[in-house]
Known about the structure:
The chain is an alpha+beta fold. Helices cover 45% and strands 17% of the residues.
Amino acid sequence: MENRIQRIKEALQEAQYKLTPQREVTVKVLLENERDHLSAEDVFLKVKDKYPEIGLATVYRTLELLSELKILDKINFGDGVSRYDLRKEGAKHFHHHLVCMECGAVEEIEEDLLEDVEKIVEKEYNFKVMDHRLTFHGICGDCQSKKD
């Protein structure tokens, strides 16, 4: 975890920002809960446990800054709640998600499934793809099993 925090600190410094204690505790919470797709409120509650004097606005500003710097991605799974997801180190693109419409479970797909689609878009539409997001909405295996 310390290595990732150091690389995030370096990314902030390159953009003329500092890794303040408030930002650092927010980053640690995101790293500790990396697979959970936390909302800003979720992040705030977890940060507040570790750093009681922090305010909600500070957490929101930190999340927005980290989003602007492409350290994390702001995502919405169709439930009206923005969630935050750390970008995988070295990943060319944002990873994909499978969202269960029954139980709300979210599974990540690490492999890039859209390389061929990107090439077609770039060639046929003369459009330089910088990033993409793909979310499948459906029924997970556990929920399917419960129905059978």
